[in-house]
Write a sequence for this structure.
């Protein structure tokens, strides 16, 4: 039985695979740009010219980058028997939603989506091992 834990945030995803007592880790970088929108007043004078900030353009670009990131992760999950998604931000929930909308067979293998703080790689491995030990009892 192949059990996966997927730790995900905006920077990377780590797929931790447990099978027959062995573990394997695959790291997938996200390539999602970090947007720091600047703009607003172009002058110190009250009522002076204003810069228009096009948030929609940045958000749309980020949405496409997240989609490409998920499209890179999902094929690596197909050979699993059970999956747990976890991470510090909302990316685990977004990945869960994407899988539920587009991959029904894979969706049924997801055991849980958990919130977790930022962790080192060893902590992530220990978290996944602990999760599956608790589930098997």
């Amino acid at each position: 039985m192949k059990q996966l834990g997927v730790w995900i945030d905006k920077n990377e995803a780590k797929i931790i695979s447990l099978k027959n007592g062995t573990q394997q880790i695959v790291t997938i970088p996200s390539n999602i740009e970090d947007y720091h929108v600047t703009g607003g007043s172009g002058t110190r004078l009250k009522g002076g010219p204003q810069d228009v900030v096009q948030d929609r353009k940045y958000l749309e670009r980020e949405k496409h980058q997240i989609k490409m990131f998920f499209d890179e992760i999902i094929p690596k999950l197909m050979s699993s028997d059970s999956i747990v998604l976890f991470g510090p931000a909302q990316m685990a929930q977004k990945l869960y939603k994407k899988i539920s909308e587009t991959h029904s067979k894979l969706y049924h293998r997801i055991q849980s989506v958990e919130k977790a703080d930022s962790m080192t790689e060893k902590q992530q491995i220990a978290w996944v091992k602990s999760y599956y030990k608790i589930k098997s009892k």
